[in-house]
Design brief:
heterodimer, A: alpha/beta, TIM Barrel, nine-stranded mixed beta sheet, two-stranded antiparallel sheet, 8 helices, 11 strands, about 25% strand, B: alpha/beta, Udp-n-acetylmuramoylalanyl-d-glutamate--2,6- Diaminopimelate Ligase, Chain: A, domain 1, five-stranded mixed beta sheet, about 20% strand, Ser_kin/Pase_Hpr-like_N_sf (chain B), DRTGG domain-containing protein (chain B), DRTGG (chain B), Pol/histidinol_Pase-like (chain A), 5'-3' DNA exonuclease activity (chain A)
Amino acid sequence: MKRFIADLHIHTCLSPCAELDMTPLRIIDTAVKKGIDVIAISDHNSAENAEIAVKIAMKKGIMVLPSMEITSQEEAHVLAIFDSVDKVMGMQEIVYRHLPNGINDERVIGYQVVVNENDEVLRFNKRILFSATILSLKEIVDTIHSIGGIAIASHIDKEIFSVVSQFGFIPGDIAFDALEISYNTKRQRAESVFGGYKTIPWITSSDAHHLADLGRRTVSFFLDELTFDEIKMAFKGMRKIEWNTEDMD
Amino acid sequence: MLKVSDIIEKIGLDIRVSGDMHKYVTGCYISDLLSDVMAHSKDGELWITLQTHPNIVAVAVIKGLSCIVITNGRLPETDTVKKAESENITILTTSKTTFEIAGLLYNILRSE
């Protein structure tokens, strides 16, 4: 089996909280430089930069998984990772139907930029991507699965916007494929706090909002080959997932 | 109508960020879900919450809230303080619970 390094939680300039230089092109160049084999582009409640990222990735010898970080009505974040742009767009359509109406206040919240492969601005997304959807966490996870994606509970160690912060625990009836621990928490500490949830695989990732943060936490997948199906098998325990050294530069 | 400064004086809240203290308090909204506050709070309302994240400042600015009161002894994050300072949003804290503060505030606003 071969080892592939993954950072499955990266925001682009489409997320109002991310730096404007987080364009798909620069993210991919940085990831390649850092020796990362597979990344997921996961913007808040939108995937409008995913298609271009996948297109760029094909030329650069890296795998990009089109994803979204969806906010449930309880304000818990979930990573929805897919193997195709069509599927993430299907998910986006559902999410958009359940976002509140209104126009993003760019001065307060930040810009939501859709770019092309040359780092040029195509348009500004005017939806309030910052807000919660009116979908329950369970509805979101079930929908991700019905489309064939992977559902990961984002940064369960965070005190806001995590399943644990919003529910108090990981509800047993929600079928997460994995739990994510943020870069803020070291492995040993995570084990002592969340050890009871070891029945579900764990990942850790950068949740990068700045280029410098990309790959600050990664996991290794041990797979026969780098495909989405093999990654899925890793989450089912048929392949191996391992945390890499913390605070990697 | 009472101003933010009057409320502080009457119920004894700790000032973490002093923004516009002369803003009128038109009422109160209580919620820890930012999206709920976005949807239902009204201009001039005082917001009682447990949240300490910088996004509370953004919500207060967008909705024109008069101030934010963080209860249960929680303190705003460093970034929240910085953002509130730059946006001129008042953040008050208290060791009292949301229930206690709401009760005190209800009596004051009712007697006005």
